[in-house]
Amino acid sequence: MDKLFGFLEKYLMGPMSVIASWRPVRAIVAAGIASIPLTIAGSSFLVLSVIPQAIPLDFIADLWAVSFDKFSSLYLLAYQCTMGILSLYFAFVIGYEYTKIYAEEDGVDINPLNGGILGVFAFFMTIPELVIQKGEVVGVVNETTINGWQIGGDSLTRLSTSGMFTAILMAILAVQLYRLCVVKNWVIKMPEAVPEGVSRSFTALVPAFVVAFTVILINGLFILVGTDIYKVIAIPFGFATRIANSWGGILVIYFLVHALWIVGIHGANIVLGLVNPILLANMASNKSGEFFAFAGEFTNAYVTIGGSGATLGLCIYLAYRAKSEQLSLLGKAALPSSIFNINEPLIFGMPIVYNPILTIPFILAPMVSASIGYWAIQLGLVSKTIVQTPWPTPAGLGAYVGAADWRAGVVAIICAIVAFIIWYPFIRLYDAQLVKEEQENAGAIS
Question: How much is the pTM?
Answer without folding.
Answer: 0.89
